[in-house]
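Let's sit down with a protein and look at its sequence and fold side by side. Please make up or recall a protein chain and show it to me in full. Label the sequence line and the structure token line clearly, so we can match residues to local backbone shapes. Go ahead whenever you are ready, and we will take it from there.
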Amino acid sequence: MAKRLFNGAEFLITETSPADVFTPEEFSDEQRQIAQTTEQFVINEVLPLRERIEHQEFGPVVDLMRRCGELGLLMIDAPEEYGGLELDKTTSMLAAEKIASSGSFSVVYAAHTGIGTLPLVYYGTAAQKEKYLGKIISGEWIAAYCLTEPESGSDALGAKASAVLSDDGKYYLLNGTKQFTTNGSIADIYTIFAKVDKEKFTAFLVERTTEGLSVGPEEKKLGIKGSSTTQIILDNAKVPVENVLGEIGKGHKIAFNILNVGRLKLGAAVVGAAKKAIGEGIRYANLRKQFGRTIGSFGAIKEKIADRCADIFAAESLVYRITGMIDDRLATLPQGAPDYYVAYQQAVEEYAIECAIAKVYCSEALAQVADDVVQIFGGYGFIQEYPAEAYYRDERINRIFEGTNEINRLLIPGIILERTMKGAIPLQSKAMKAFEALMSPSFEEADDTVAFAAEKRAVANLKQAFLVVAGNAAQRYQAKIREEQELLLALADMVLNIFAMESALLRGEKMLQGASEAKRDAVAAAVTVCTFEGNEKVAKAAKKAAFYAAEGDTLTMILSGIRRYTKYLPANLLQAKRTLANAALEAERYVF
């Protein structure tokens, strides 16, 4: 792991050294072994059953989950005292990445090991863990999570499901309907949120056999057809009082804190799916001939391959950079302390911004990969016998899962501004200095003798651009900025692309050390493409935010600053794209 503890969003105002970030090249032997075990499980046991799974034969799904339990893949996050492995977040995310190539089954796995298991791990009493956790991490029982309702999605606290204490004080009677429950028809235990006395938002552990609980029919979905998605209907469902999870009225803590890990895990999973999808596209491009040549030899196809491999490189880099930061912070906590999981959740919550970034950036990277893979396949991309069609359908849900991308985008600047007001991030003073810097010309040039000097300068400049734009927006709107959603979305686009660019750059610097010439060329190409594409996105978002929040002389000054801070002149951009594409075409896969 890295040597320095970072605070959430600190990357915006500090310079980070490659030595301070964790990268995929640093996986331990144990992590690589778990990744290999997961990969072989998918290839040998899941994919042969994929057609049956896609037609909603859930018997094989349940059997495969039990097999996951035998392999230890369900117990990575569970404490040792209850039979778990209690491994780090990096290992958990790596397993999620590797299982993602299984298609719909990965959704079943992710829901079970994430939102299905973690509420019990983090908030359950000793008695609750003793009763349920062993069954869950062995695969004997499947777990599900019931938060969304027909009229409350992103507004989770607007839930209508109610819980009333029975006259004898032994049960809570739950009423309401939960919508879009993943694993709904195959789950044995549900984490269900309801309002005690229609006011106190609370979580409950509810068994499948509970009197008054019924499961609705399977939803007919666009994609991820092999996962169960149903309503859970509560009609005076009798839940023992000892099955209250956490504190009454504190269910929001469970709901929102679990989502941070869920967002990061989704980021890791879609990286795995993107690698699998682009590999299919690359192999097809090497086989398909038009005009007497393989289509992979054409520049139009090469550019798609290069751009998507660069996106995946950045997505993978940022996911494991975040897991490294979380694991470093968790390693400082005294295990076994009575309030261990309270501190644990606080440690994860510190990186709520970064988890939201992972969810948005990675899901949108996969969306572009899936779209381009269909395009590479051409007409065959629309035919079910070819793999592109399934990637395209299955991808779409990821921008809705774990909070829509719009909600996550709003969270990013919202949390930054909230922490700024509390003094946790010195954004205001940094923004003032950035404004002052606009008044004086800069003659500083990148040192060409240093690796990625131009890219380092570009990232540093984009941070300055963010400070200028965000500082002006905060000053103009003050507390009312939360109502300016269009502006917040633009600021979020700046932040997430800066983080992705920097993550790719820092990883690239590390990878150059001791690499072969071919590997160095591919890494340098990926960093160049990531920086160029990211710089363009940040520049567009910055201008949009400037027009939303400034006018007159102030607008003119900010636009001038944006032009100055988004000036990046990549060396041999076209050659970089061709180098990256050629490396992928030769390897017939995502090359890193």
User: Anything to note?
Assistant: The CA atoms of residues 418 and 424 lie 9 Å apart.
